[in-house]
Design brief:
247 residues; mainly alpha; three-stranded mixed sheet; two-stranded antiparallel ribbon; disordered C terminus
Amino acid sequence: MDSVKEKREELIKSKPSFRLLHNSPPVTVKVGSGPTPQYWSLPQALLAHVSPFFRAILSGPWAESQSRSVELEEDYPRAFRLFVHWIFTWIAQPAGQFPTQISDDFDAMDGLRAWVLGDKLGCVLFQDYAMATICWADTDRTIEADFFRQAYARSPPGSTLRRLAACALVWWIDCISSAELDEDPDVQLMNEVDDLAIEVVKIYKSRARGSRVSYFMASEFSDYGCIEREDLDGAGIRVDVEADASR
Protein backbone atom coordinates (compact mmCIF):
# COMPACT_ATOMS: atom_id res chain seq x y z
CA MET A 1 0.00 0.00 0.00
CA ASP A 2 1.48 3.33 -1.00
CA SER A 3 1.81 6.31 1.31
CA VAL A 4 -1.10 8.22 -0.27
CA LYS A 5 -3.51 5.35 0.37
CA GLU A 6 -2.16 4.91 3.88
CA LYS A 7 -2.66 8.60 4.61
CA ARG A 8 -6.16 8.48 3.14
CA GLU A 9 -7.09 5.53 5.38
CA GLU A 10 -5.60 7.34 8.35
CA LEU A 11 -7.70 10.39 7.60
CA ILE A 12 -10.84 8.28 7.20
CA LYS A 13 -10.26 6.82 10.64
CA SER A 14 -9.72 10.29 12.10
CA LYS A 15 -13.17 11.60 11.13
CA PRO A 16 -14.50 13.84 13.91
CA SER A 17 -17.79 12.87 15.53
CA PHE A 18 -20.63 14.78 17.12
CA ARG A 19 -19.48 13.60 20.56
CA LEU A 20 -16.60 16.08 20.29
CA LEU A 21 -19.20 18.86 20.44
CA HIS A 22 -20.36 17.82 23.90
CA ASN A 23 -18.71 18.06 27.30
CA SER A 24 -15.81 20.05 25.90
CA PRO A 25 -14.94 23.54 27.13
CA PRO A 26 -15.32 26.25 24.48
CA VAL A 27 -12.33 28.02 23.00
CA THR A 28 -12.59 31.58 21.79
CA VAL A 29 -10.78 32.15 18.50
CA LYS A 30 -10.18 35.72 17.37
CA VAL A 31 -9.50 35.96 13.65
CA GLY A 32 -8.18 39.05 11.91
CA SER A 33 -7.10 42.43 13.20
CA GLY A 34 -8.23 46.01 12.86
CA PRO A 35 -11.68 47.31 13.69
CA THR A 36 -13.65 44.24 12.56
CA PRO A 37 -12.08 40.96 13.73
CA GLN A 38 -14.36 37.95 14.05
CA TYR A 39 -14.76 35.81 17.15
CA TRP A 40 -15.64 32.11 17.20
CA SER A 41 -16.51 29.90 20.14
CA LEU A 42 -15.71 26.29 19.30
CA PRO A 43 -15.29 23.08 21.33
CA GLN A 44 -11.67 22.59 22.37
CA ALA A 45 -11.81 18.83 21.72
CA LEU A 46 -12.99 19.43 18.16
CA LEU A 47 -10.25 21.92 17.34
CA ALA A 48 -7.59 19.70 18.88
CA HIS A 49 -8.88 16.70 16.93
CA VAL A 50 -8.66 18.28 13.48
CA SER A 51 -5.61 20.55 13.90
CA PRO A 52 -2.12 19.78 15.24
CA PHE A 53 -1.67 23.54 15.71
CA PHE A 54 -4.67 23.82 18.04
CA ARG A 55 -3.77 20.53 19.73
CA ALA A 56 -0.33 21.90 20.61
CA ILE A 57 -1.30 25.42 21.59
CA LEU A 58 -4.27 24.33 23.75
CA SER A 59 -2.21 21.91 25.82
CA GLY A 60 0.78 22.40 28.03
CA PRO A 61 1.93 25.56 29.82
CA TRP A 62 0.92 28.01 27.12
CA ALA A 63 -1.13 31.12 27.88
CA GLU A 64 -3.72 30.03 25.31
CA SER A 65 -4.34 26.75 27.11
CA GLN A 66 -4.96 28.59 30.37
CA SER A 67 -7.24 31.25 28.91
CA ARG A 68 -8.78 28.96 26.28
CA SER A 69 -8.47 31.74 23.75
CA VAL A 70 -6.42 31.90 20.56
CA GLU A 71 -5.67 34.92 18.40
CA LEU A 72 -5.10 34.51 14.66
CA GLU A 73 -4.56 38.17 13.85
CA GLU A 74 -2.63 37.53 10.63
CA ASP A 75 -5.34 35.33 9.13
CA TYR A 76 -8.51 36.20 7.24
CA PRO A 77 -11.96 35.82 8.82
CA ARG A 78 -13.47 34.39 5.63
CA ALA A 79 -10.73 31.76 5.44
CA PHE A 80 -11.46 30.70 9.01
CA ARG A 81 -15.18 30.66 8.25
CA LEU A 82 -14.41 28.21 5.45
CA PHE A 83 -12.42 26.15 7.98
CA VAL A 84 -15.43 25.99 10.31
CA HIS A 85 -17.69 25.16 7.35
CA TRP A 86 -15.34 22.30 6.43
CA ILE A 87 -15.24 20.89 9.97
CA PHE A 88 -19.00 20.70 10.39
CA THR A 89 -19.54 19.47 6.83
CA TRP A 90 -17.08 16.66 7.55
CA ILE A 91 -18.83 15.73 10.79
CA ALA A 92 -22.11 15.39 8.89
CA GLN A 93 -20.59 13.15 6.20
CA PRO A 94 -21.17 9.39 6.27
CA ALA A 95 -18.26 7.34 7.57
CA GLY A 96 -15.47 6.94 5.03
CA GLN A 97 -16.34 10.03 3.02
CA PHE A 98 -14.74 13.43 2.87
CA PRO A 99 -16.54 16.77 2.55
CA THR A 100 -16.77 17.80 -1.08
CA GLN A 101 -19.80 20.08 -1.08
CA ILE A 102 -18.39 23.48 -1.95
CA SER A 103 -20.21 26.62 -0.87
CA ASP A 104 -20.89 29.30 -3.48
CA ASP A 105 -20.16 31.94 -0.83
CA PHE A 106 -16.39 31.64 -1.29
CA ASP A 107 -14.21 32.81 -4.17
CA ALA A 108 -10.72 31.83 -5.35
CA MET A 109 -8.95 34.28 -3.04
CA ASP A 110 -10.88 32.83 -0.09
CA GLY A 111 -9.69 29.39 -1.15
CA LEU A 112 -6.09 30.59 -1.44
CA ARG A 113 -6.16 32.16 2.00
CA ALA A 114 -7.80 29.02 3.36
CA TRP A 115 -4.96 26.92 1.89
CA VAL A 116 -2.43 29.14 3.71
CA LEU A 117 -4.47 28.85 6.91
CA GLY A 118 -4.60 25.07 6.53
CA ASP A 119 -0.82 25.00 6.19
CA LYS A 120 -0.52 26.95 9.45
CA LEU A 121 -3.04 24.73 11.25
CA GLY A 122 -1.46 21.52 9.94
CA CYS A 123 -4.68 20.41 8.22
CA VAL A 124 -3.74 18.75 4.93
CA LEU A 125 -7.32 17.61 4.38
CA PHE A 126 -8.56 21.18 4.76
CA GLN A 127 -5.93 22.28 2.24
CA ASP A 128 -7.40 19.78 -0.22
CA TYR A 129 -10.81 21.29 0.47
CA ALA A 130 -9.38 24.78 -0.12
CA MET A 131 -8.01 23.63 -3.49
CA ALA A 132 -11.43 22.30 -4.41
CA THR A 133 -12.92 25.67 -3.44
CA ILE A 134 -10.49 27.46 -5.77
CA CYS A 135 -11.30 25.13 -8.66
CA TRP A 136 -15.03 25.50 -8.07
CA ALA A 137 -15.13 29.23 -7.45
CA ASP A 138 -13.74 30.77 -10.62
CA THR A 139 -14.75 28.37 -13.34
CA ASP A 140 -16.63 31.03 -15.27
CA ARG A 141 -15.11 34.23 -13.92
CA THR A 142 -11.93 36.15 -14.54
CA ILE A 143 -9.31 35.28 -11.96
CA GLU A 144 -7.81 38.30 -10.24
CA ALA A 145 -4.16 38.94 -11.01
CA ASP A 146 -3.44 39.22 -7.30
CA PHE A 147 -4.43 35.56 -6.93
CA PHE A 148 -1.33 34.50 -8.86
CA ARG A 149 0.94 36.85 -6.96
CA GLN A 150 -0.35 35.67 -3.61
CA ALA A 151 -0.22 31.99 -4.57
CA TYR A 152 3.52 32.28 -5.19
CA ALA A 153 4.25 34.69 -2.34
CA ARG A 154 2.49 32.60 0.32
CA SER A 155 3.40 29.02 -0.58
CA PRO A 156 6.71 27.18 -0.94
CA PRO A 157 8.28 26.04 -4.23
CA GLY A 158 6.71 22.86 -5.55
CA SER A 159 3.45 23.34 -3.65
CA THR A 160 0.16 22.25 -5.14
CA LEU A 161 -1.06 25.82 -4.78
CA ARG A 162 1.69 27.12 -7.07
CA ARG A 163 1.03 24.34 -9.55
CA LEU A 164 -2.66 25.15 -9.63
CA ALA A 165 -1.93 28.86 -10.15
CA ALA A 166 0.22 28.07 -13.19
CA CYS A 167 -2.48 25.84 -14.63
CA ALA A 168 -5.08 28.51 -13.94
CA LEU A 169 -3.08 31.08 -15.89
CA VAL A 170 -2.75 28.72 -18.86
CA TRP A 171 -6.50 28.05 -18.63
CA TRP A 172 -7.10 31.80 -18.65
CA ILE A 173 -4.90 32.27 -21.73
CA ASP A 174 -6.69 29.39 -23.47
CA CYS A 175 -10.09 30.93 -22.71
CA ILE A 176 -8.96 34.24 -24.21
CA SER A 177 -7.74 32.39 -27.30
CA SER A 178 -11.13 30.72 -27.72
CA ALA A 179 -13.05 33.95 -26.93
CA GLU A 180 -14.63 32.40 -23.81
CA LEU A 181 -13.49 35.33 -21.66
CA ASP A 182 -13.24 39.00 -22.57
CA GLU A 183 -10.55 40.21 -20.18
CA ASP A 184 -6.94 39.50 -21.07
CA PRO A 185 -4.63 38.09 -18.40
CA ASP A 186 -2.11 40.50 -16.95
CA VAL A 187 1.02 39.52 -18.86
CA GLN A 188 3.05 41.63 -16.47
CA LEU A 189 2.57 38.77 -14.03
CA MET A 190 5.19 36.82 -15.96
CA ASN A 191 7.75 39.54 -15.32
CA GLU A 192 6.81 39.94 -11.67
CA VAL A 193 6.78 36.27 -10.71
CA ASP A 194 9.68 34.41 -12.31
CA ASP A 195 8.67 30.97 -11.03
CA LEU A 196 5.18 31.41 -12.48
CA ALA A 197 6.64 32.04 -15.93
CA ILE A 198 8.81 28.92 -15.60
CA GLU A 199 5.82 26.74 -14.70
CA VAL A 200 3.72 28.14 -17.55
CA VAL A 201 6.54 27.37 -19.99
CA LYS A 202 6.68 23.80 -18.64
CA ILE A 203 2.98 23.38 -19.32
CA TYR A 204 3.30 24.55 -22.91
CA LYS A 205 6.35 22.36 -23.44
CA SER A 206 4.33 19.36 -22.20
CA ARG A 207 1.56 20.35 -24.58
CA ALA A 208 4.03 20.48 -27.45
CA ARG A 209 5.18 16.96 -26.58
CA GLY A 210 1.59 15.77 -26.76
CA SER A 211 1.15 15.10 -23.05
CA ARG A 212 -2.59 14.97 -22.38
CA VAL A 213 -4.10 15.18 -18.92
CA SER A 214 -7.16 16.70 -17.34
CA TYR A 215 -5.76 19.75 -15.56
CA PHE A 216 -7.17 22.35 -13.19
CA MET A 217 -9.33 19.78 -11.41
CA ALA A 218 -9.29 19.58 -7.63
CA SER A 219 -8.34 15.90 -7.79
CA GLU A 220 -5.13 16.84 -9.61
CA PHE A 221 -4.12 19.08 -6.71
CA SER A 222 -5.17 16.87 -3.80
CA ASP A 223 -2.03 15.90 -1.88
CA TYR A 224 -3.63 12.87 -0.27
CA GLY A 225 -6.27 11.90 -2.79
CA CYS A 226 -9.06 13.15 -0.55
CA ILE A 227 -10.91 14.89 -3.34
CA GLU A 228 -11.81 12.45 -6.09
CA ARG A 229 -12.44 13.44 -9.71
CA GLU A 230 -16.06 12.30 -9.59
CA ASP A 231 -16.70 14.41 -6.48
CA LEU A 232 -16.63 17.59 -8.56
CA ASP A 233 -18.35 16.55 -11.76
CA GLY A 234 -20.45 19.71 -11.54
CA ALA A 235 -17.43 22.02 -11.60
CA GLY A 236 -17.06 23.97 -14.80
CA ILE A 237 -13.31 23.52 -15.01
CA ARG A 238 -13.29 20.00 -16.29
CA VAL A 239 -11.86 20.38 -19.77
CA ASP A 240 -9.25 17.98 -21.07
CA VAL A 241 -6.20 19.79 -22.35
CA GLU A 242 -2.78 18.76 -23.47
CA ALA A 243 -0.79 19.90 -20.47
CA ASP A 244 0.90 18.61 -17.40
CA ALA A 245 1.82 21.21 -14.81
CA SER A 246 3.89 18.93 -12.61
CA ARG A 247 6.38 17.56 -15.17
